[in-house]
Specification:
Largest sheet: none
Number of helices: 10
Structural class: mainly alpha
Strand content: under 5%
Order of helices and strands: HHHHHHHHHH
């Protein structure tokens, strides 16, 4: 309850903080908050699973041992709807170190969220980044050097949903490179139960080809 009423309202301002070190630190703090809301205990260890059987325990390095999250709980819903979306803004940050920190924590959380939410929460982020990067690249080439005198497009920074929108000042190339790296990390670190061959065929392969 305190997270919803006390912490969540602070996030939009922190995501846009003028100091990049604050935004970079926020990436790690969002990960911790997400883990807490998913049921972090720090001492509870998950039972033997396919993940450990496949020898990927090293991929969990640095992550607290938590039980399987209960997707129907209000805590999980707060995490999915009010915390995780801010990572999309942070991974499109103009500062490379902020983007790197956001990407690392997205991968770590993708190993912990409900398996059915991997696509909607984690994989959707690089897919959206690719679309935004390609859109900006096309717009830049069409302008052919002519810039909009207003310096922005249709007031994207003033809407209520701007906290989960890509940063308007980040170049298209940076968005596409960041998306490519995140796609590679997710494909490398997520075991088959979380990233199935069907998901790879449907989402990853077409996106990689488009890049």
């Amino acid at each position: 309850k305190l997270t919803s009423t006390g912490l969540v309202p602070l996030l939009p301002r922190l995501v846009k903080d003028g100091e990049s070190i604050i935004r970079q630190r926020l990436c790690a703090e969002l990960k911790v908050l997400c883990l807490v809301l998913m049921g972090m205990t720090g001492t509870t260890k998950e039972p033997h699973s396919a993940e450990s059987a496949n020898g990927i325990d090293s991929r969990m390095a640095g992550l607290p041992q938590i039980p399987k999250p209960i997707k129907s709980s209000n805590y999980y819903k707060v995490m999915a709807h009010h915390l995780f979306p801010h990572l999309f803004t942070l991974i499109s940050d103009p500062d490379n170190e902020v983007r790197r920190a956001a990407s690392e924590n997205i991968v770590k959380l993708a190993l912990r969220v409900d398996e059915n939410d991997v696509v909607s929460l984690a994989l959707s982020i690089p897919l959206r980044l690719v679309k935004e990067g390609q859109k900006r690249a096309v717009a830049g080439s069409n302008q052919n050097g002519a810039k909009d005198p207003s310096g922005s497009t249709s007031g994207t920074g003033t809407t209520a949903s701007s906290s989960s929108s890509p940063h308007p000042q980040t170049p298209a190339e940076d968005l596409l490179i960041t998306a490519s790296n995140l796609l590679a990390d997710l494909a490398s670190f997520l075991p088959p139960p979380r990233l199935s061959p069907e998901t790879t065929t449907r989402y990853l392969s077409p996106t990689i080809l488009s890049l």
